[in-house]
Amino acid sequence: MSRNTEKNIKKHNDKLHKAQSKVKNAEILRKEKLKIIVKKFNSLNPNESV
């Protein structure tokens, strides 16, 4: 009997894509939070430059 049945392949791919999507969404969320932090920092310190 083969382990690589259509059902098992689909199940594996779904699990893989779900994990990849989770990582991608976490990265997007981090970037959005960073933008908010930078905006807030710049509004508090408009005259200081690094």
* Secondary-structure content class: mainly alpha
Please tally the β strands and state the result: 0
* Shape assignment: rod-shaped
Question: How much of the sequence is in beta strands?
Answer: under 5%
How many helix segments?
Answer: 1
Query: How is the main sheet built?
Result: none
Return the average pLDDT rounded to an integer: 89
Tell me what you see in this structure.
The model has no long low-confidence stretch (mean pLDDT about 90). This protein is an all-alpha fold and about 50 residues long. The termini are far apart. The protein has one helix at about 5-45. It has one helix and no strands.
Any chance you could write out the topology, listing elements then pairs?
Blueprint: H1 6-44
Short description:
This protein is an all-alpha fold. It has one helix at 6-44.
Overview features:
mainly alpha; single chain; 50 residues
